[in-house]
Amino acid sequence: MRFVRRRLPAIQTRLDVRADASSAADPTPRLATPGLLYGVRGSAPTYAAELALRYKRLPYKRADLLAGRHAKTLRRKGFAGITVPALWLDDERLQTNRAIARGLERLLPKPALFPADPIARAEVEGAERLTDEQLQPATRRILIRAMARHPGSVRANPEIGRITLPRNRLLRALLARYAFRYYGITAEVVREDLASLPGMLDAIDAYIDAGVLNGPDLNAADFQIAPLVAVLLGIDDVATDLAGRPAAALVARVLQ
Fold first, then answer.
1. How far apart are the first and last CA of the chain?
2. CATH 3.40.30.10 is the classification of domain 4-107
3. Domain ranges for the chain
4. Which region among 62-76, 186-200, 220-234 has the lowest average model confidence (pLDDT)?
5. For the chain, percent helix, then strand, then coil, each to nearest 5?
6. pTM, two decimal places
7. 51 and 223 Cβ atoms separated by less than 8 Å
């Protein structure tokens, strides 16, 4: 398996993913080697892991694997699961953004990805669960079907990039068939996803209105949600309804 390693530049926006002034007294831990983040180009969850790493100012390199063949590579690298993002950091293997966020907090508590107040933290974790259990799988299915059926209706976010697909038409068709089967993608399932999407976005907007998301200090859920909403903004079927929502403003803050 060949993959490309690339070091991405630190975020240079008004995002305030940069550490706040209170973090100046907390030195970044010296790692024996930079973290190694395995992902797939164009993957919103992979980009979410990068946002958390940059926020913590931890050195890392990124290795992009081929979509559809990444599972074997991850197993060979010693990871228990087959999904990206997968982070090898300080001799610890972490998979899923929720696990990565908690691993980063253990290694470097400041700047914090979670509020110190238990009630506020529970609200952020609720937004994480919504993302991980509902928004992410629905977004994945909507995106994959749109790319397979109407590729011209999908525009990649420039920060996240476009998923690299084989140039050979037969290989693309085989990959699409595998993805449809693996993720349970059917026309009926995607119709249900599209029907339930407004409710998910309403919940995200409510979190924003309550200050759980897009508050003065960004948190783990902000970094996990914004890339997924950015992907949805690039899909014609849903972009129009999304454009005026508070969730779109979160994307503008985090990704631009």
1. 33
2. yes
3. 4-107, 118-255
4. 62-76
5. 55, 10, 35
6. 0.86
7. yes
